[in-house]
Write a structure and sequence with these properties.
By secondary structure, this protein is an alpha/beta fold. The chain is 46% helix and 10% strand. A hairpin with an 8-residue loop joins strand 13 (747-751) and strand 14. Pfam families: LRR_6, NACHT.
Length: 1107
């Protein structure tokens, strides 16, 4: 057994292959014993032949046995001999491979010292050469293919050449004097003797030969699977073929672990991982900037990396930016969609055997350091880079070095450099650990963070000398170059992070791959916000609503640290003001004043290592040097916006290139062989904020002129909004600079309250050409407490009752500003926000106005605003409020379904004062109609219900008919136009109005009503209980017959109908009985329209507001 183990060294096979070979030999030995017994026992005495005389029995048996052997084993190879060859040949192949591969495995497994002497250096070079060769892979594949071919060959020999598929147990034996075999049966009968024989061992022999065939088949299948797997792995990862990798991954996955069994090395790895786990648990970078001193129970959130970490958008190479002139499109440049980029799936994908020297580029706050920390933490928890069969690369040791902590070091060796790792367990590397690192560099990961913070990054040596030994001391920049170029620790993985400003210094280094971190996509920002608030789902929804509804904040949050700052700031404000009912902080200047300081203090070189307190962030006073820097940034920002350039030339930011608020873009070609540096602010809103700081330092006269000249220019809109907030702290700048620009012109608009009333004229503000100016000023005024009181007094003096902001491109954040400005102007009774797409979040802001006790709002138009069911829910809650005085609500074209209709139905049946509800052009079905029917059946005060262009059928008409038939129903107007109502629905409605209901207007144009339906309605309107005054049946399928029924009904003395519209039907009789009847009805005082062409048709009565 020991000799067998020596011939088949386990280290040359993986554990499964080695076990399979041993099992192969064991099965071969078993088969050999079985077949030897079968062959030795099988003799002529095992044959039983009939027809022989007793004295000739042995002769007959012998001759028949020879005939049996000649027919079924024509080559005379005994079965036990075949079995021996079958198992022995494959065993010899395995043994030969093991002897050949053993020396290579031994060289890879035995580390040598590296003391700098020629002999050890030669041994080390030989080991490296062995590790990078492919002999082991080739030898293994060779023996694998030889065994595979041999197995297939033996199966073919057994079944097709040497033996029958089944050894028969019966055999006919013939003897004759002349020939050994008769030519035909008649000859046999005449010239030979026939004997019928039986082989008693044939069944057993057949069974065991089939067993041999089955074992060969299973063995070949296993070999084929392993062969395909190895070749596929080698095709996918070329380095898999290298001796060291093949040994480590395929032959002996525990090979590296056997090295780690050395106590000091294993202890070093374990201690390093434990330190990483502990240090990365509660990071300083994730502590709230609003932490209070000990003893003060501040409501702050300190996060853990596992809790908050969100994947980033990381793309190969550098990103390009195309800033358009449209500000809205400019903001969309920042948060890249995860679908738009060929981004990495995980951080683990940054490194592999083909890309070991990697450069990661990213602007300040984009998450470079946090990525490195997360990568290390996952490695420490054995989540990534482990020695598994499907791992693309693995590491036994990892080192995390920050350039800014190395600036004070002089010349040092690589060994000394590695002890400076952020998570090093000691101040020196043990000899055993150091030796392992030198001999197995492919298992080492070195993360070098913040190359831009290295003081000598501009002094990189063009052609550094080759290292004489691994212990040689050199300046850090040379050590770094040796690592990246592979002159030290060749095969080690080195990942460098840097801001784009330092790329020029490492342009000559041969990185295998360059990546850029783009930050968060919109989906990832949302994920981050909800992770930030944790279990407080309500707070998460509130923060996400606020951020997502404001494109300025949303696009700013593509930088992860800005998401952290924004969430921290908003969460702090929300928690402090939650008792007052504040759910959506709306002053953008307040947020940015904090966010800019937090961002700058966290990423400016002179502050990032200082401990900053809450006072640093909330105080308006800045250190003198910071104030000077901000003033310079303000000038650059202002000039850039003024000139319409978001990309700043390098010469304009001289001495400010390293500012945390700038992002270095790829250089721009500026002529033949000339390139110009380019920069931009990390975000457009940051540039706009600093531009507003520059404006706030102007004189009153200069600023007044600037504001009046540029207030209508869209590119200055947010700048002036920030300016208004900053002016609260500027005593020399009066608020009137902005408030004096508030428009005072008004216009008149006709509003129709009820179907039986004349249209009323109301005075509206602002006028059509001043709407955008009014919105801009509302947003500015909302930023300043001083301006709010001034504007409220000024608006009280303007004679208007109607706020008209149709088609102003309002956002949810804009709605917040408008509500804050007009909520205390008591005379406002009408508000029209048609065609703005404010969404459910904007609707939530408008609902605050409805709930305000000082508000007298009675008429609200929210047509075409994409409110959805969520917005309908907010409105339902608002109109149930006791302070709400709303009478008329227009919700046309808002994608409201039955769910939203249910919310509204519950509201109008619950002490609601709403009289008119228009839900036209939505997605309401019969289910929604049922909810509304139940509401108006429940003593609600609704007078007009408009459901034009929904998805109602006869079932919905039936629900509504039953409701208006109830004595509690006060409905006067019902519009069911442009639905799918047929004669059946018309019958339900006719029965209702025939029963003393209060309905006055019934509008059913563009349905599927025919003469039958017209007849039902005609019978109803001639009843003295019917109080209907107006009936619209245009655009249906009514012919002269139906018109005759209606005309006869109108001519009845009990009919109270005053208006009938039959335009665009199939009434063709212009001189017959139908026409005469209609003319007679008209003579009775009923207005009838039936023959006006559709192109010139205008409804004589309409239930919607008319501008």
């Amino acid at each position: 057994m020991d000799n067998l183990k020596e011939l088949l060294a386990p280290k040359t096979f993986n554990k499964f292959s080695h076990a399979a070979v041993l099992i192969w030999f064991l099965i071969g030995a078993i088969f050999l014993g079985i077949f030897s017994e079968v062959e030795n026992a099988e003799s002529r005495f095992d044959f039983r032949c009939g027809g022989a005389k007793s004295e000739d029995v042995d002769l007959v048996r012998g001759k028949c046995f020879v005939q049996y052997q000649e027919q079924y084993n024509k080559y005379g190879i005994p079965t036990y001999g075949f079995v021996v060859m079958n198992f022995l040949v494959i065993g010899i192949v395995c043994a030969m491979y093991s002897l050949v591969a053993k020396s290579t495995v031994d060289r890879l497994s035995l580390p040598t010292t590296r003391n700098g002497d020629p002999e050890s250096q030669s041994a080390s070079d030989q080991t490296k050469q062995t590790s990078t060769g492919k002999q082991l892979f080739i030898a293994y594949c060779g023996q694998l293919s030889t065994r595979l071919v041999s197995g297939v060959l033996f199966m073919i020999l057994q079944t097709q050449l040497l033996y029958p598929s089944k050894f028969p147990h019966t055999f006919d034996c013939y003897f004759n004097s002349g020939t050994d075999q008769p030519r035909n049966l008649s000859d046999a009968n005449r010239n030979s003797t026939f004997h019928e024989c039986n082989n008693q061992r044939a069944v057993k022999k057949t069974f065991w030969m089939n067993a041999v065939l089955a074992v060969n088949g299973i063995y070949v299948a296993c070999l084929l699977i392993e062969t395909v797997y190895i070749l596929a792995r080698a095709w996918k990862v070329r380095s898999f073929m290298k001796n060291s990798k093949f040994l480590e991954i395929h032959l002996s996955p525990t090979h590296q672990k056997s090295h780690l069994a050395q106590s000091k090395l294993q202890l070093f790895i374990e201690e390093t991982k434990e330190i990483i786990k502990e240090d990365s648990q509660n990071l300083f970078e994730l502590r709230s900037p609003f932490s209070a001193p000990p003893g003060e129970h501040a409501l702050v959130t300190n996060l853990t990396l596992d809790q908050i970490y969100t994947n980033l958008v990381v793309i190969p190479d550098r990103a390009t930016y195309n800033f358009t002139e449209n500000r809205e499109e400019q903001l969309k440049v920042y948060p890249r969609s995860r679908k738009e980029e060929s981004q990495l799936k995980s951080l683990e994908d940054l490194l592999n055997d083909e890309s070991k020297k990697v450069l990661v580029v990213g602007r300040p706050g984009i998450g470079k350091t946090l990525c490195c920390t997360k990568l290390l933490r996952d490695w420490a928890f054995d989540k990534v880079f482990q020695a598994t069969t499907n791992a693309r690369i693995h590491f036994d040791a990892a080192f995390f070095l920050k350039f800014r902590r190395l600036n004070s070091l002089n010349d040092l060796s690589l060994r000394e450099l590695l002890t400076q790792s952020e998570h090093s367990p000691s101040d020196h590397l043990d000899d055993e650990v150091w030796k392992y690192i030198l001999e197995h560099p492919e298992g080492v990961l070195i993360l070098l963070d913040g190359f831009d913070e290295f003081k000598d990054n501009a002094n990189m040596v063009v052609a550094p000398p080759r290292p004489k030994s691994a212990e040689e001391k050199m300046p850090l920049q040379i050590l770094y170059q040796w690592l990246v170029t592979g002159k030290l620790l060749k095969g080690a993985s080195v990942l460098t992070t840097t801001r784009p400003t330092a790329l020029a210094s490492i342009v000559d280094l041969p990185f295998d791959k360059t990546f850029e971190i783009l930050g968060f996509s919109t989906e990832q920002i949302e994920e981050y916000v909800y992770k930030f608030t944790g279990d407080d789902k309500q707070a998460g929804e509130t923060l996400w609503r606020h951020i997502s509804s404001n494109m300025n904040l949303l696009s700013l949050c593509y930088i992860p640290v800005n998401s952290f700052i924004m969430c921290s700031s908003l969460s702090q404000i929300l928690q402090l003001d939650r008792s007052a009912g504040v759910t959506l902080p709306s002053k953008l200047t307040t947020i940015y004043k904090i966010a800019v300081k937090v961002f700058y203090y966290k990423h400016a070189k002179e502050f990032r290592d200082r401990r900053m307190t809450r006072e640093h962030f909330v105080s308006d006073k800045l250190p003198e040097n910071v104030e000077e820097t901000f003033e310079k940034l303000g000038r650059v920002a202002f000039e850039g916006i003024k000139e319409g350039k978001l990309i700043v030339e390098g010469k304009k930011v001289r001495a400010m290139e390293d500012s945390a608020l700038f992002h270095r873009l790829p250089d721009r070609p500026a002529g033949q062989l000339a390139y110009e540096r380019q920069f931009c602010f990390i975000h457009l809103t940051m540039q706009e904020f600093f531009a507003s700081r520059h404006l706030a330092n102007m004189s009153e006269t200069e600023l007044r002129n600037f504001v009046s000249e540029n207030i209508k220019d869209g590119k200055w809109q947010l700048v002036l909004q920030f300016l208004a907030g900053l002016m609260d702290d500027k005593d020399h700048l009066p608020s009137e600079i902005i408030t004096d620009l508030l428009p005072t012109n008004t216009g008149e608009r006709k509003i129709e309250y009820k179907e039986d009333e004349e249209k009323t004229k109301v005075s509206y503000w602002p006028t059509r050409d001043e709407r955008d100016l009014a919105v801009t000023l509302c947003k500015c005024i909302n930023e300043s407490e001083k301006m709010e009181s001034l504007v409220q007094r000024k608006m009280q003096q303007i004679n208007f009752h109607f706020v008209n902001l149709i088609s102003c491109h309002l956002t949810a954040a804009d709605c917040s500003s408008i509500v804050n400005v007009i909520k205390n102007v008591q005379k406002i009774s009408h508000l029209d926000l048609m065609n703005n797409n404010i969404g459910p979040l904007g609707c939530l802001e408008i609902c605050k106005l409805l709930k305000c006790s000082k508000s007298q709002l009675s008429w609200l138009g929210l047509i075409k605003n994409q409110l959805t069911d969520e917005g309908a829910k907010y409105l339902a809650e608002a109109i149930k409020n006791n302070s709400c005085q709303l009478r008329t609500l227009f919700l046309i074209y808002n994608n409201i379904t039955d769910t939203g209709t249910q919310h509204l139905a519950e509201a109008i049946s619950n002490n609601c004062q709403l009289h008119t509800l228009d839900l036209s052009d939505n997605n309401i079905t019969d289910i929604g109609a049922k909810y509304l029917a139940e509401a108006i059946n429940n003593n609600c005060q609704l007078r007009s219900l408009i459901l034009y262009n929904n998805n109602l059928t006869d079932t919905g008409a039936q629900h509504l008919a039953e409701a208006i038939n109830n004595n509690n129903c006060q409905l006067h107007t019902l519009d069911l136009s442009d639905n799918n109502i047929t004669d059946i629905g018309a019958k339900y409605l006719a029965e209702a109005i025939n029963n003393n209901c209060q309905l006055r207007w019934l509008i059913l144009y563009n349905n599927n009503i025919t003469d039958t339906g017209a007849q039902h309605l005609a019978e109803a309107i001639k009843n003295d209980n019917c109080q209907l005054r107006l009936l619209y049946l245009s655009e249906n399928y009514i012919t002269d017959t139906g018109a005759q029924h209606l005309a006869e009904a109108i001519n009845n003395n009990d009919c109270q109908l005053r208006k009938l519209n039959l335009i665009s039907n199939n009434i063709t009789d212009t001189e017959g009985a139908a026409r005469a009847s209609l003319d007679a009805a008209a003579d009775q005082g009923t207005t009838i329209s039936s023959t006006v062409p559709e192109s010139t048709c205008t409804l004589e009565a309409h239930s919607r507001p008319i501008v």
